[in-house]
Amino acid sequence: MYTTIITLHKQGTSQRQIAKLSGVDRKTVRRIIKKYASEQIEIPIPYFKESKLVAWHEEIVRLLESNMSYVRILEELSQLGLNSSYSALTRYIKKHNISRDTCIRFHTIAGEEAQVDFGDIGKRYDSDGKLRKAYIFNMRLSYSRLDYYEVVFDQKISTWIKCHINAFEFFNGVPKYIKLDNLKAGILKADFYEPLYQRDYKRLADHYNFHLSPCRAYQPQEKGKVESGIKYVKNNFFVGRNFESYCDMTSKLACWLEKANGRIHGTTKKIPRELFESSERGCIQALPTLEFDMSSWHIRKVAKDCHITIENNYYSVPSKYVGMEVGILRSSSVLKVYFGEDLVATHGIAVGAGIFTTVNAHYARDKRYCPGFAEYDEKLEGKMQSIGAYGENMLLLLKNDHKKDWHKAARGIISLRKWYSDDLIDKACKRALCYGISSYSKIKNILANNCYDLPLPDSEVDYARTA
């Protein structure tokens, strides 16, 4: 506006007309023309007054990083001597683009640290040709930025541990610290002062002699190097590529990884493989001589059906432990169940899912007294055999004709002892065997009608039939 007024004035326009054309008060026009006449300033110098908050800039940043609200920040600064308004504070923060997400960069020495994480890569074909949800595991050495990647299809503790072992073998060594997020495969309870580690993961750390260094909760930037590694493999390998099979994907990933570790890294401006060989290989710890025992430890509560569940399969436990928590040591071939220090059950590992592995002796004795359990079957068989030779042969015929329901007919025949002697029941069984009859009701009719002593077609024939 200043330049417009001066230009019109130079053209001989009156102050009244300038005010009318510019929409500015005539007094303002007069003041600007007078200023120009005395100072000959063609372009006005903007007025700038530095905010008093400039002196408090570092304090504002510090308080923002502690997640304080603007009101609380103003209260804290006021106690320190600042005399300003809420609106002035908010304008200052907005003008200078002060963010709550500021963070510091962490630097590590060679061999000191590696960072680990899983990343979601959508659905991919597994080794059986099934399309499943997949993840990429990344371990990145913080100093050289040398990467190890592996595609997996779950985030189980066994998978997490196996990925670490494979990464250590890839690097042919172990860093002193592993920086990780608070995922359940590694950290059972996130706590700044004393995090609760997953038992088997802690065993792995002890075996390979590295320390676990979990990030603070909700502070993923503390493992920013592996976050960048996950982002890098997603955007530079998986995006825009289709794979015919699991083998095709893993072989191409291995080839790509060689190139990725041979590129010039964007931050270090050095090649990760060369930096690792020249400066870090001699600093990482050697691999242990003994292999890590992959047996995993679990805690389960025994269900009322006397079974515990692990890896989608079911294993029996003695009934006296129903409702109690038991410890489970699982290896690749054997599952052992402990109550305290006592071994209470041992099973082979079931192959598949939804498989029940049951030891009948684990049920209470009174619960085992039913069809299908040895105690019940043996007692019923003994009663049929005690009737006589034909009663024993009838038992074989019942098992052959009635299969697993033979108990019902056998119990019916045994119940006839309430009214008839074993000798008469044995004769009735003999007659029924002669005609191939295995029906309780028919044997009962033979006894009721006194037909057990009637002549048989051929008294020399052995009427016993085996199953």
List keywords for this structure.
single chain; four-stranded antiparallel sheet; 14 strands; alpha+beta; disordered C terminus
Helix tally? Answer: 17
Distance between the termini: 114 Å
Counting helices, strands and paired strands, the structural category is alpha+beta
Q: Look at the structure and give the mean pLDDT.
A: 83
CATH superfamily label of the largest domain: Ribonuclease H-like superfamily/Ribonuclease H
CATH architecture of the largest domain: 2-Layer Sandwich
Instruction: Kindly report the spatial arrangement of strands forming the biggest sheet.
Output: 3-2-1-4-7
Q: Summarize the main sheet.
A: 5 strands, mixed
Q: Any idea what the shape is?
A: elongated
Number of strands: 14
